[in-house]
Amino acid sequence: MPWALSVPLLPEESLSSWLVRAAMRQGCDPLSLTGAIWPSWRVWTRDIDREIPLTKIRPLVNASGNAPDRFKKAGVRDDCEKVAGYSLPEAQAWPWLLALGSRNRLRHGGQQVCTLCLAEDSTPYLRRHWRFAWHTGCGFHGVQLIDECPVCKAPIEPHRLSAEDQHLAQCSRCHEDFRKEVCTSPLPEAFNFQVLADRVLKTGNVTFRQASIAPDDWFSMVTFFLGVVRRASRRPVSDLGIALLSLDIPVTDSRMPISGLAFELLPVSERSALLAAVERLLSIGFEETFSALVECHVKRSALHDPRKSPPVVLLPLLSRLSHHPHGPHRRRVSSAYRPMSERAVRASWARLKRRMKAEPTF
Ligand SMILES: [Zn+2]
Ligand SMILES: [Zn+2]
To answer: Is 357 domain-assigned?
Structure first.
């Protein structure tokens, strides 16, 4: 049975945004709307922004009157597969897509918004690109995105709003209107990175050391350097830390993550700090960076986990570094008897706080 009120998808709108708006427009809660379309499919326990599978599309097309290809375009699968370079399995985290960390219908995070975009919309809605992990700022307004309610710190979960809430520019827990928030400036280097990554994804190829490489090669290369920066920030007095600091790469920025969580799970401030450092490294260039690494006697094993092979495009550069990984083997005290380092305590505290976010405060 088609809906009485049609709800077209807005430019660049994400699928979850559209489903929430469609529900409010029909005067019902998102859960009731999706329950009516798909009685035996629990939409909100999954990341519906990724895609609506072909097998599920028909009842939605019938009810909404929107063409199937509009829904396909609104999903992020195609873009995410360009970034990853392979077909992405459903039951796995997708690289460079913010993870929602769903548990039932509760989430840990993973949704960002530009409050000024929401304020200017005649009908506030969420953009697809706010889910990409390299997005930390708004290209139109030059402000940092927010990924939690500024008042109660809850993650942004529009699917938990109800029909009475009427619009999705608000916190589902405390109902703070995001449109009146004071915005902060993004880190310019992190924003430069965002522009660059968007361009790589859009143009479909990029020049790397006089050769043309595919977007997935570029993203795996920057993923590698994110890991390098995180390693250096953990040990700024190591050879690696000293080498990067000598290039003015800000590995000691106080916003660097300490939790050890995957990049796609980090809050916007921590991702910004990491991306700013990687952008600085990219703008210095690989020749200069690797020369500094060689000068500071950085071993190849200091850059990455030896169990994971580095991106092929970086192998010629990595071969310049000494390969001998460790000095004399030291016996370690069994971890059960070792006190936790301050860093380890802070990291587990940060992970615990993220888990607690998913619990309602009332
Ligand atoms: Zn904006
Ligand atoms: Zn709130």
So the answer is: no
Q: What is the pLDDT of residues 155-200, one digit of tens each?
A: 999 999 999 999 999 999 999 999 999 999 989 999 999 999 999 9
How many domains are there within the chain?
2
Whether residues 163 and 22 fall in one domain? yes
Ligand nearest to the CA of 156: 2
What phi and psi values does residue 182 have, to the nearest 5 degrees? -80, 130
pLDDT of residue 227: 96
Q: Are residues 49 and 171 in the same domain?
A: yes
Cα-to-centroid distance, 141 and ligand 1 (Å): 5
Quick one: CA torsion of 236, 237, 243, 247, rounded to 10 degrees?
A: 60
Q: How far is the CA of 14 from the centre of ligand 1 (A)?
A: 15
Same domain, 197 and 311: yes
> How far lies 161's CA from each of 45, 99, 126, 158, 357, in Å?
15, 20, 14, 5, 17
pLDDT surpasses 80 at 327: no
- The tens digit of pLDDT for each residue in 272-312 reads 999 999 999 999 999 999 999 999 999 999 999 888 899 99
- Model confidence pLDDT, tens digit, residues 59-106: 999 999 999 999 999 999 999 999 999 999 999 999 999 999 877 677
Q: Which of 180, 197, 220 represents a domain boundary (last residue)?
A: 180
CA separation for the pair 182, 190 (Å, rounded):
20
Domain span at 41: 15-180
Give residue for tokens 């300490």.
258
CB 179 within 8 A of CB 169: yes
Distance 265 CA to ligand 2 centre (A): 20
DSSP of 58-102: HHHHHHH---HHHHHHHSSHHHHHHHHSSPPPTTSPPTTB-----
